[in-house]
């Protein structure tokens, strides 16, 4: 993990996307103020996830559960935290991307805007009035990860978020360039589990490296609950 120093012990980070939400069915951009939460299928997905993590907790204890404040994310994290005997915690930098005036817009409309106006494809340009740039969001996620690694040395932490959280985390942890998202894509399904280990680097004393252990693991879902997602965000 670039520029992270003072490594003493490893930290396990399990990043999980929220379950199916109303906004996913609508295919619209919904943040903290307008998210309507999970669908019935999403709530069932969250329960299956909770059962799986409870079983894993016996083998490798989970020390903390964090969530963004968006309803669909909180509603996924809460049953997991209850099964683990923990409270859902919030860390301000670990949050949803602020889309400003684009909130409520269909994802297809946003994609069309970016296609018609190449300037909006830049990481340092907001997509709408009141929105934040992707660079600013990535910086916020970096701060969140740095704080979590420092706070939870030697522990296993679960972070619930959206596509934006998990994608930005990968960019930070892998040290990807600013234009990586224009050349690559990460598929992240509902309740998909991505696992990282932030460990002392064997190559440079006092620094850490990020090890990707698993990505988009949905082995706890089957049948109608196992849906493959291709949304741009959310």
How many alpha or pi helices?
A: 7
Q: Give the overall silhouette.
A: globular
Beta-strand segment tally: 6
Secondary-structure-based class equals alpha/beta
Task: Specify the CATH homologous superfamily.
Answer: Phosphoglycerate mutase-like
CATH architecture: 3-Layer(aba) Sandwich
Radius of gyration: 17 Å
Helix content: 25-40%
- What is the count of distinct domains? 1
Q: List the helices and strands in order.
A: EHHEHEHHEHHEE
Pfam families: His_Phos_1
GO molecular function: fructose-2,6-bisphosphate 2-phosphatase activity
InterPro entries: His_Pase_superF_clade-1, His_PPase_superfam, Phosphoglycerate_Mutase
Protein name: Histidine phosphatase family protein
Overview of this protein structure:
Helix 2 packs parallel to helix 3. Helices cover 35% and strands 16% of the residues. It has a single domain (11-226), classed as Phosphoglycerate mutase-like (Rossmann fold, 3-Layer(aba) Sandwich), CATH 3.40.50. The protein is built from 7 helices and 6 strands. Strands 3-2-4-1-5-6 form a 6-stranded mixed beta sheet. With 234 residues, the chain is α/β, with parallel strands linked by helices. It is globular and about 50 Å long. This is Histidine phosphatase family protein. Keywords: Hydrolase. It comes from Nocardia panacis.
């Amino acid at each position: 993990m670039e520029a992270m120093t003072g490594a003493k012990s490893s930290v396990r980070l399990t990043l999980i996307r929220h379950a199916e939400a109303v906004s996913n069915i609508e295919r619209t951009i919904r943040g903290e103020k307008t998210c309507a939460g999970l669908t019935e299928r999403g709530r069932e997905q969250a329960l299956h996830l909770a059962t799986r993590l409870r079983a894993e907790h016996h083998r490798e204890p989970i020390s903390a559960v964090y969530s963004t404040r968006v309803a669909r994310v909180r509603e996924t994290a809460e049953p997991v935290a209850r099964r683990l005997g923990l409270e859902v915690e919030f860390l301000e930098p670990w949050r949803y991307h602020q889309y400003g005036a684009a909130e409520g817009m269909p994802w297809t409309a946003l994609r069309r805007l970016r296609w018609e106006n190449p300037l909006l494809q830049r990481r340092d340009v907001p997509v709408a009035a009141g929105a934040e740039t992707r660079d600013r969001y990535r910086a916020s996620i970096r701060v969140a990860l740095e704080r979590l690694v420092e706070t939870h040395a030697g522990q296993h932490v679960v972070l619930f978020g959206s596509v934006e959280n998990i994608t930005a985390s990968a960019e930070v942890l892998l040290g990807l360039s600013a234009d990586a998202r224009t050349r690559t894509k990460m598929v992240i399904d509902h309740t998909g589990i991505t696992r990282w280990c932030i460990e002392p680097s064997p190559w440079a004393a006092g620094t850490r490296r990020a090890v990707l252990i698993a990505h988009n693991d949905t082995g706890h879902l089957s049948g109608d609950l196992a849906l493959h997602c291709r949304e741009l965000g959310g």
